[in-house]
């Protein structure tokens, strides 16, 4: 029994991915609970991150600059051949950091403060850039900059700022509760695994909903895989120069795909959101591999 529980614990993400894909009809019904699950998950994770350590650094702006330039360059090149594919690449690449990145960073032993700082910076930057840029790329009536900016900012505030503020209040007024949260901080990872089940189910449902688009779906699947590899690789290389390889890799590699899908449906061609759905799969497979590698290193370290 202990071996089975240990296996489930070690392989939580792969199990979550397979479960969501296989039982997509059932778990797709629970999409509405994702924001609440993310709030609790972040509230627990922030218990280990002192607010005084959230300081912008040069590396954060280097990462942001690379992401924006890469997104625009890739869009310009691909749009010469296929506009929908180009929009998919743009929204996936420019998408801000997932608020859940801190969960994986903590599990990998990275710098939680740095990834949270970049998450805030990237979300604010995107909330300004998208309402200005995307209507120029895909013109539409009835959505002003102010409306778009405010809508995006509300999403950022609800899913990032509120759990951070709640965590800081607990630290100051209920320190014993915060100590308990730190002790059981690993619970945030399993809450994330539950979110992955639902995200995988939603991905499968969105693909199956329009089987006639399988040609463009394949192209978006391949392009999102390439983007995932490039972002994690470049993030880790930039991070190596600042002795923060893990956090920088997750900062630009782990994307807020729920937000990206909403942006694609709001500002671009809705079909481009399929690329965001595939990115959910690739980033979680890569995170599973990273966690597996860390377990191997830890096991080897104990033997020595």
Summarize the entry for a quick read.
The chain is globular, with a radius of gyration of 19 Å. It has helices spanning 2-10, 12-22, 24-27, 34-45, 58-78, 83-94, 101-108, 112-137, 145-173, 175-183, 187-208, 214-241, 245-253, 257-267, 273-303. The chain has one domain (2-294): Up-down Bundle (Na+/H+ antiporter like fold).
Protein model, in words:
With 304 residues, the chain is mostly helical. 80% of the residues lie in helices and 0% in strands. It has a single domain, classed as Na+/H+ antiporter like fold (Up-down Bundle), CATH 1.20.1530. The protein has helices spanning 2-10, 12-22, 24-27, 34-45, 58-78, 83-94, 101-108, 112-137, 145-173, 175-183, 187-208, 214-241, 245-253, 257-267, 273-303. Helix 7 (101-108) runs antiparallel to helix 13.
Architecture blueprint of SSEs:
Layout: H1 2-10, H2 12-22, H3 24-27, H4 34-45, H5 58-78, H6 83-94, H7 101-108, H8 112-137, H9 145-173, H10 175-183, H11 187-208, H12 214-241, H13 245-253, H14 257-267, H15 273-303
Provide keyphrases for this structure.
single chain, 304 residues, mainly alpha, Na+/H+ antiporter like fold, 15 helices, 0% strand, globular
- The total domain count is 1
CATH topology: Na+/H+ antiporter like fold
Please mark out the parts with pLDDT under 50 across 5 or more consecutive residues, or reply none.
none
Task: Give the CA-CA distance, first to last residue.
Answer: 28 Å
SS-based class: mainly alpha
- Mean pLDDT metric: 87
Give the H and E element order: HHHHHHHHHHHHHHH
CATH class: Mainly Alpha
Major sheet: none
**Could you tell me the number of beta strands?**
0
Q: Architecture in CATH?
A: Up-down Bundle
The count of helical stretches stands at 15
Helical fraction equals over 70%
What Rg do the Cα atoms give?
A: 19 Å
Form type = globular
Work out the strand percent. under 5%
